[in-house]
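Researcher: I'd like a structural prediction for the single chain below. Treat it as a standalone chain; there are no partners to consider.
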Amino acid sequence: MVGDPRMDAAWARFQSMLDGMLPHEATQQLHDLFVPEEVIEEMLRRHEAATTEIVSLREPLAVGRENAVRWYGGPRAGDKNWPAFEKRLRRYLDPEEVRKIDEASDRVVAMLDHPKTATFRSRGLVIGHVQSGKTSNFTAVVSKAADRGYRMFIVLSGVHNSLRRQTQTRLIRDLVDLNPPLWHQITKPEHDFQPPPNAQSFLASKDQHLLLVVKKNGPVLKKLRDWLEQAREQLGNCPTLIIDDEADQATLATRRINPLIRDVIGRIPKVCYVGYTATPFANLLVDPVDEEDFYPRDFILSLTRGERYQGPETLFGRNPLDHEDPSEVSGGLDMIRSIRVEELAALRPAKKADAPDFTPEAVPSLRRAVLWFWLATAARHARGQSDQHSSMLIHAHSDTRVHDSYHPVLRALRDEVAQGLREQNGVIEELRTLWNEESCRVEPTDANRHLGFEAVSPALESVVSTTRIVMDHYRSTDRLDYDSGPVNVIAVGGNTLSRGLTLEGLVVSFFVRSSNVYDTLLQMGRWFGYRPGYEDLPRIFMPDETRRWFAHLATVEAEMRIEIDRYLTEHLTPLDLAPRIRCHPKMKVTAPSKSKSAVRAAASYGGQLVETRYFPREKNDEDEQWHADNAVAVRKLLVGAHRDGTVDDGVTAAGRALWRGVPMDHVLTFIDEYEFHPKALDAARSLMRDYVIKRNKNSGALAFWNIGVIGKKPTTAGGRIDLPNGAAVDPVVRTRLASSGDESVADIKTLTGSRDEALDLTVPKDEEKVNRIVLQRLRVAQQPERGLVLLYPIDAKAPVPIIRKNGEERPVEGRAPLDAPGEIVWGAALVFPRPTSGQDLGVEYDYLQADLSRVFPSAGDDDDEDLSVLEQDLDAGSEGVA
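Model: Treating it as a single chain, here is the predicted structure.
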């Protein structure tokens, strides 16, 4: 049917039907119209293919509601908004970047509700990176949602007029001006929301999309709420998308703004709220029980960053995480310059009361920073970027009087250097020396961009003399303006420059503002972002302690994104698992008011099965040594178990062995020496060790363990793996997911079989259904104080098993060979018995997370089993598979 003009025409008609109704309604209408069954089947096949292609994208990682309707199949012929915006993007971005924006925005739109759903009120979160193109993503989302039937778009844009104005201007440029007849702007660059008369007529009209860019401000939000209230009846037919830019600011835990945003949402029967932020610490600590608050209970998406993005890790480096080789962790680019402690008193007031009388001085670090700004800007001119903006940021304090006090100091420095360049005095040599010292410390990505001072100096006089000095704060009338042609500017500011606002062409940042709150400090990093053509030129001046804090934040961010990626990869929802956020002894994760419902993360392993799921599979020395070391740890545990435990002769199944009563110290040593993959965050070595010790000390439990081997019956005499008890086993087969997204790591999803935990238990013959719930109950009755370690020798080279399905023999679907280094890969599973008291002892540690304990207070263990392991062994159903 591919290429059949009639079928293509039917498909176009079916797609237009989907704009006006849900997929199942459109299908029923086709049946009612007596459309041939084969045509309906082809329509459904095409729809399924289109929607599946979007939800199956590997990047960006995203997870949504389990039973969400698949309705969005991507842009199509006849759309107006996205094609126009895409064409504009292609004018200044390379095709690969445009493709990423296209795919990421497809994923977000697919997470939204179908606009023809009777009522909906969903909440999602999109996590980006500071200064990494979040605005482009949500502009693409708005354009695609508008093409599919969403009618009203409310963008909550920060708390400052400057950011609201910048966002409004960009949306006018990228949406409204590209299709003027399709849009009605209710807000304008020059003014925030002012209620137009007759709200009913605005909201009843279906000819135009409504655009509102609204500051998160009490009086403004009240006016919006009351205006919407006037048109309650019309709102039922006005699907609305609310984009909350900087969603962790003002939206959460504020006495005025939070209730007002909730009120606005409460007035709209069909609304999707999507928060965008690069610092989701507060969003992930919201109380998930309050369904009206802003915990991202419906979906979460983590945007990827471009290869050239200069983020916290790139600039500052970070500490190695557990299981990481320190030599492979970034130490950061050589772009950070220290501001000496002795200079701070001349750069910021010691206390707030001193702000009115404070006068800064042009200390050596400030002078060096400003001179480098001019040199770097002149270098950009020499590289052909004279038609682009070039900016320097000075962020010293929140008080606007301190900002103003910098103006005469900077003006005097500009006048001095401009005069020195005209007179060719000692300033020339000072600049030459600085250029020679700094220009060789970071290599440009293109070796041809290396410049000597002689190539840079011709542009210096013009650059210095044309530099504007702008005090950007709410009292200033001379604000940043990037719309009137290329500008060289030194911007001095505080709060207005620390959230969302983009400083175009930022080259030098001079930062002495003090903050000990994660999200506040990270958002102040306006220097993060893309620096095309001048990646080697940015410099950041700050005190050494602040530099260490940013390196810590880089570590926190890397770890948090691994956490988020884990539950996205494993298809958990934000209500299944709360990401942990690492704490710092001198810093706060977020404002205390935003984390009231957060709890100290605790590792409580009672009743848990911790198993290896990820295995490195690169053919290099590091991965080979990984597996070799694990084999040594396994052999050491088995030798100790045989020496100090008791062989259970009752385990007669070929391919299996069990030792009982093995002292705890052997297991602790194994935990210390066996390497779990970094992705296995539930198998944190220190937490498992501390938990065993704490529980043993408190109740005497876990003093002894049972150690088992789960192999297969040898197919030849002697078997491939010899055990200390004189027996031998063959390895089991475990294959990896074919589409895990990371070819260097094998994700087998499941190590243990459904009955493997019964190795040291007696299962009654009348027990019809044996699953984890049954086995946990039996363990409490039979082995309440004793843990179990199961060891699995896995064939590293086995092919994907062939199974018989629907009368045909075929490989297990969605699987690929493990193909790991060596011949045998050792997997391990630890089974922790539930405490008989019913209350487990958690090992608290230095992380915060949202408290999910009250979300489903009566939920028991999931009775659904993952039986994929049963399809992996070559002799499924034999002794090798319990």
